[in-house]
Amino acid sequence: MENVKFDANGLICAIAQDYETGEVLMQAYMNAEALEKTLATGYVHYFSRSRQKLWKKGETSGHTQKVVAASFDCDRDCILLQVEQTGAACHTGSRSCFYDSVVKGEKEGMTFLGELMRIVADRKEHPVEGSYTAYLFSRGVDKIAKKLGEEAVETVIASKNDDKAELTHEISDLIYHLLVLMQAKDVSLSDLCTELVRRHNK
User: Within a domain: residue 177?
Assistant: First the structure.
């Protein structure tokens, strides 16, 4: 704790990130007590500058942040918290506080896989009439696996052609059906990444 560089007000910046998808959820501040409680309890505590008091994230809403990993930056005046987010991180009800786009790029990043997985999970738990995803779940694993196999074959065929757009389309179909199968069999993105890291470390 003596190596943490708190500012003149006794605070450091704290950034919360979804451990599974990499989504940046929110930014707030911690004093020494908040940092100590976070590390001791495993649940994120912040210091409110407006109320001048310590608060546990989700203490009233239930939208807690369970710490999975934490890292200081090179200057030790900012901490990155990789968390398991329950519910919405933002007080507005949004998943992330960073929804007010200033610059909108044409390309999307990997964090959309997390959003898509949550949509797939919601279709499983709350089927919507006319939803293809809900239809797949209603037909069971055999149907999902059959579709995944078909998409794998179509991806292989597309890879033999010199058409990036076609291949991208087929890979997208393949990944979508893979996410549905993962959800059907209760395999998370975290499970997948943990296994890949284990293999890499070998």
Answer: yes
Report the relative pairing of strands 65-72 and 78-85 from DSSP bridges: antiparallel
Q: Which two tokens stand for residue 182?
A: 């993962």
Q: Which residue, 176, 143, 173, is CA-closest to 157?
A: 173
Q: Is residue 77 part of a domain?
A: yes
In one-letter notation, the amino acid at residue 10 is G
Contact 179, 186 (CB under 8 A): no
Domain coverage including residue 39: 12-85
pTM of the model: 0.86
Q: Is 103 left (phi over 0), alpha (psi -120 to 50) or beta?
A: beta
Does 102 fall in a domain? no
**165 and 115, same structural domain?**
yes
Instruction: Decide if 138 is inside a domain.
Output: yes
Residue 13 pLDDT: 98
Percentage with pLDDT > 90 across the chain: 94
**For residue 72, what are its two tokens?**
């200081």
Q: What is the CATH number of the domain that holds 44?
A: 3.10.20.810
Mean pLDDT across the stretch 180-186? 98
Question: 67-125: per-residue pLDDT in tens?
Answer: 999 999 999 999 999 999 999 999 999 999 999 989 988 888 999 999 999 999 999 99
> CB–CB of 9/20 below 8 Å?
no
